[in-house]
Amino acid sequence: MKAEDFISQIKRIGIETVTGIPDSTLKQFCNYMNGEGCTEFAHYVPANEGAAVGIAVGTYLATGKPACIYMQNSGIGNVVNPVTSIAHEEVYDIPILFVTGWRGEPKSNDEPQHKFMGKITKSMFEVLNIKYAVIGPDTTKNELEDIFNMAKTQLEKNR
Question: What does DSSP assign to residue 75?
């Protein structure tokens, strides 16, 4: 899958603000976002993933439009507090799209320090009540469109 296909889906569902922490598993995406030609998004690289949630919340409160946060899966730990204290549906009900690199994905040949986090990544999203889909290099354009249609529906429900 090309980064441009992924980016076009983000634009299609109405996201105008992207914020996050660069990750090598998201290299093509990050290269695109940090490229000189990327002018279609407001793009911020904060100090950590929790600060990215703050930017996403502020964006939504100011514009009524959700933001996209990108990060590696180890960053999920940094978003737990701001997601559960601010963005969660039982608090202020702020929609956010997360794009998360999956280091230590089960059955992958990865570094030892990524294995446990890779093993619990899906469970972390489930505990936070964040719906997710796994996108990989073999994901087709049609599958990607279906995934983003699901994401759009979730964002419209403030999830």
Answer: G
